[in-house]
Amino acid sequence: ATQEETISRPIARPWLPAALAAASGAVVIGLLFLLWVGLQQKEVAGTKVVNVPFKTAPPFSLGLFDGSTFVLSDALQTGKPVVVNFWASWCGPCADEAPLLQDVARRNADRFTFVGVNVEDLDSDAQAFLRKYSIGYANGSGNAGPISIQYGMRGVPETYFIASDGRLVRKWNTLTAADLDQFLGELQRASGPRAS
Q1: CB 48 within 8 A of CB 132
Q2: CA–CA dist 71, 126 (Å, integer)
Q3: How far, rounded to the nearest angstrom, does the alpha carbon of residue 51 sit from its chain's CA centroid?
Q4: What is the pLDDT along the chain (196 residues), one digit of tens a residue?
Q5: What is the torsional sign of CA 79, 53, 184, 128?
Q6: Is 185 within 8 Å of 112 (Cβ atoms)?
Q7: Nearest-CA neighbor of 114 among 101, 126, 127, 125?
């Protein structure tokens, strides 16, 4: 009778359904997380452009390192489009962009206004960065926190291309020389004959 009792009696495993449910749930959550990460990487790597909740660039005043103030509305009144670059001295891609931006700003000073907004940085480190890369266009950090919030900045570097009428033409992360040429062409066309 003992052999019959062990064969007919199932082994009690009350934890098994809960363990299977937990393992299945963990697998589903893991797959959803991987899907989300993949979609985020595709967005950043594929387009490098980020949607913004505005079509007209928000006005701002930026305290510059030389003690003066850059006012976006004043710069736009000159009729030249504006390129606004958010950067930090500790940012590797910002260091890659710096010589490109300086070269393009120098060659196109008569057609475009460039301004750098230094964020999350020490002024001394930022100024050393500007010296290292011989940056000559306007740069500052005064009021940078509210400006970066106003523009919806998600990280550095980010660059905004603003037509002479204040319309945002493009927002881009991590520029290359080819990107700059293309986007300045778009900005010139969006701004009309004045920027040619």
Answers
A1: no
A2: 20
A3: 10
A4: 555 555 566 677 888 888 888 888 888 887 776 666 666 544 444 445 556 678 999 999 999 999 999 999 999 999 999 999 999 999 999 999 999 999 999 999 999 999 999 999 999 999 999 999 999 999 999 999 999 999 999 899 999 999 999 999 999 999 999 999 999 999 999 988 654 4
A5: positive
A6: no
A7: 101
